[in-house]
User: What shape does this take?
Amino acid sequence: MKRRKYQKKNYLKRVIIGFIIAVIIWILAIYLYITYQNIEINNNNYQTEKLQSTESKQTVENVKENSTKIADTLEKVQESVVGISKLKNVGGSIFSSSDEEELGLGTGVIVSENGYILSNEHVTGEKYSRCYITLENGKNYNGTVVWSDSSLDLSITKIEANNLVAILLGDSSKIRVGETVYAIGNPIGFEFRRTVTSGIISAKNRSIKIEENNSQSYMSDLIQTDATINPGNSGGPLINPDGEVIGINTVKISSAEGIGFAIPINVVKNVIESFKNEGSFDQATLGVFAYDKDVIKYLDSNLNFDEGIYIAEINKNSPAEKAELKVADIILSIDNISLTTMNELREYIYSKKPGDTVTLKIKRGKINREKNVTLARK
Assistant: This one.
């Protein structure tokens, strides 16, 4: 009797479970049917195209457009590039095809409409030197060097001419490694005048040692480029794609290909503006020569510092000497502007006048102190 009741109870349980499963299946079936009915099928025929083809077409068009723009820009820039020689050619132009090897041809760039030309000092000579300038139109002029700086290897020469095409000045503080640049110059002579070469900015703030005439010197804060620079390119412009000069070509590594250097344009901007606006430059001086941390390793491998510039020389009776600055002091800042290179100090001093007072923050040993220095006339 008990067994029969147990079997009946199990039967009812199975029936109930089966019923519940059937209901669940029925509900799922209805849900799926309704969902399927709401699916919209679009029978339109789609047109397809390879994205790669579209992108390639746009790229080709952009390249052509950019190439034309750059060619137009460089063509305009070449009107501001001049030939410079220390010897006068009897034919009237230094671009004469005769006796090129005797002319020592170099390059310069017009920086003002009224005849100021920027170049290297080793091309034009020191202040008051005479040289000979040939413009893009073939006209030849006598030039007088009105300013030069041996440590920068830069000079400004004046010719008596007006309505010249002046080059645009860029901002060398904003350049980036990998950006495209163009060098323009006169690498050999008449046959190759105003040659344009292209490359990239390979590095910034380079320091190099120069050995010549049994002496050594150092140049710092240079722009390194792989654009081809030959001896006759010295003094020519290093141009960005906007046609602005960001540097003046100066030297190349003769033992390697694709390593040339240019002096950043910013260091000399204040000098150029003074000549353009006032016809002169009343140069102030602090009376020190300092090296940055990249150059100092050539002089003394035991000297190490992370910021500032190291004073290596102090001129006698200079403002620096009168303010009791000492060799081995490290200049950290000038008027609260941090310094990392000698060119930054030069650039700031070039913006001042003789008699102006500047505040230097220096480090002597482990002690930092401030010095007020009145600049003198150089």
Q: What stands out?
A: The two ends are 129 Å apart (CA to CA). The chain has three domains: 77-158, 168-276, 282-377. Residues 39-58, 89-102 have pLDDT under 50 and may be disordered. The helical segments are 2-37, 51-77, 121-124, 269-278, 296-299, 319-322, 342-350.
